[in-house]
Design goal:
Blueprint lengths: L1 H19 L12 E2 L1 H11 L1 H22 L4 E11 L2 E5 L2 E5 L3 E14 L1 H68 L5 H36 L8 E2 L12 H11 L1 H21 L5 E15 L3 H27 L15 H11 L7 E2 L3 E7 L7 H67 L5 H36 L5
Parallel strand pairs: 1-6
Antiparallel strand pairs: 2-5, 3-4, 5-7, 7-8, 7-9
Helix pairs in contact: 1-4, 1-10, 2-4, 3-4, 4-5, 4-7, 4-11, 6-10, 7-10, 10-11
Length: 495
């Protein structure tokens, strides 16, 4: 009989532990600690879905720099070299060419600038796009935080249900020991022992399922965080159930100012308004300015034939000069003189050789020039009108999206607020139901101990207590999930 009393003492301690400890916390006693805020920060740094929005913001920032850069002149440069073999060719009946091989190099630096209504308004469009991308990142971060918090709660809920399953297994094992002790003293039957063994087996199956559910929920949590699963991790953030001190009107006002999804759509609407103005600017004229610098370097591969030709031309000129003076003297006129000055010296040859050495970088600069062009597109087959209509339609869609989001936000906040209030009351009722079920279980066990009832009544009472405990666990974590949903709808933390 002492064994019976010992078993009942263990059973009473087990049921009291369930009643005094609300379902929360981790099943592990060691391992790395993971708080909710740490999980959120890991998700913000590693979640692929969120990082896509961050990448889009970087592209939008580049678009702003590019839009302002379009106001600056465009500068282009080129350098080229060529070789032409000596010889002649016939072009339009005329013979062109040179006897020597020719090396040629040239450079050009072009500067141009174009200004139109579209280019002048592009920075406003790009800035509006950047604001929209910033709002998208904020909205993505808020959504990710809500998803991580909800999954964090799912893990804690699964762990609480697993802890309850462990306690119920210990309870069933204690009941089995009690039945065996009753059988030994003749107060029970082998059938009751077999029924208790079945209860133990069923609770072991339940323990396996609940532990597997914990592992699955943990995998989903790390998936949201975007990191590899850590073994033995412990979730240490706790959540208390308190009566919500919130006013619906204040929540709606905060949401109109701070809801990230609504702000993102408003930014898109602003960008669409600017795009309409940009499309209409196509009726304005545009101006284009261009200037540049260029030069050429021309060199013969063999200058000696040119030197010989220049020498012959100088000798021929000197001969003509002397002949003219002889004729003038014979006619009784005075000679003009200066014929001795007409000669081609070695210094002249050296100068020709030096002047020929231009390839590739001794450029001869071309004359400077610039041009300004004004243009006005009078008609382009109604393409301009179509672009204006498309931009206006896109702006209207953005406005409708903002209005739809406002209506959805109002509905979501109102529903989440009412669900939260209702769920808080549900937690209180479920806590009472669990306490009542615990009392019924203790009473059924006591009646069974003194022989006033059968084992089926104990089994039914334990099943009722298990359902009430699970309902209590679910009510607690549903309350926190409704709180998270309300925070997401409002766009800011409320606790």
């Amino acid at each position: 009989m002492k064994n019976v009393l010992r078993a009942f003492l263990f059973l009473a301690v087990s049921t009291a532990a369930i009643a005094q400890n609300p379902p929360a916390g981790s099943m592990q006693s060691g391992g790395p600690i993971l708080t909710l805020e740490e999980a959120v920060q890991l998700a913000l740094r590693n979640s692929p879905t969120h990082l896509r929005n961050v990448s889009a913001r970087s592209r939008a920032g580049t678009a702003v720099r590019s839009a302002y850069g379009a106001w600056l002149p465009q500068v282009g440069s080129s350098f080229s070299t060529s070789f032409r073999e000596g010889g002649s060719e016939i072009v339009a009946g005329q013979q062109f060419g040179a006897s020597n091989d020719i090396l040629n190099s040239s450079y050009s630096i072009g500067i141009s600038a174009s200004f139109s209504g579209r280019s002048l308004m592009q920075p406003r469009v790009a800035r509006a796009g950047l604001d929209a991308a910033e709002a998208d990142v904020t909205a993505s971060a808020a959504q990710l935080r809500s998803d991580v918090m909800t999954q964090y709660l799912n893990v804690l809920q699964a762990q609480a249900q697993a802890a309850l399953a462990d306690t119920l297994l210990a309870n069933a094992q204690a009941q089995l020991e009690l039945n065996r002790a009753r059988e030994q003293v003749g107060a029970g039957t082998s059938l009751q022992v077999r029924q208790a063994e079945v209860q133990v087996g069923q609770q072991r199956v339940n323990v396996l399922r609940q532990r597997n559910a914990v592992e699955n929920q943990l995998m989903l949590l790390f998936q949201f965080m975007g990191v590899q699963r850590m073994d033995g991790v412990r979730l240490t953030t706790t959540f208390s159930v308190t009566e919500p001190a919130l006013a619906l009107d204040e929540l709606l006002g905060m949401a109109r100012r701070a809801n990230p999804a609504l702000n993102a759509l408003r930014a898109r609407e602003s960008a669409a308004n600017v795009q309409v103005a940009q499309a209409r600017s196509q009726w304005l004229p545009s101006i284009n300015f261009q200037t540049g610098f260029q030069g050429n370097a021309y060199q013969q591969t063999n200058i000696e034939p040119s030197i010989a030709s220049a020498r012959l031309q100088a000798d021929a000129a000197r001969g003509r000069c002397l002949s003219d003076d002889s004729v003038r003297v014979g006619a009784g006129l005075s000679a003009r003189g200066g014929c001795d000055l007409i000669q081609f010296t070695d210094a002249d040859a050296d100068a020709m050789r030096a002047a020929n050495q231009k390839f590739p970088f001794s450029f001869t600069k071309s004359p400077f020039g610039y041009g300004v062009t004004f243009s006005l597109n009078l008609f382009n087959g109604f393409q301009r009108e179509q672009q204006i209509q498309d931009a206006a339609a896109f702006r209207n869609e953005a406005r409708y999206s903002v209005r739809a989001q406002e209506l959805q936000m109002q509905t979501s906040i109102t529903s989440a607020y009412r669900n939260l209030i209702t769920q808080y009351q549900t937690v209180q009722l479920q806590e009472q139901n669990r306490a009542t079920a615990l009392q019924a279980l203790e009473l059924a066990q006591e009646r069974y101990r003194v022989g006033a009832s059968n084992f089926i009544e104990v089994t039914q009472a334990r099943d009722a207590f298990e359902r009430a405990s699970n309902d209590h666990i679910n009510a607690i974590y549903d309350y926190h999930k409704f709180y998270a949903a309300l925070e997401l709808a409002v766009g800011r933390p409320l606790r």
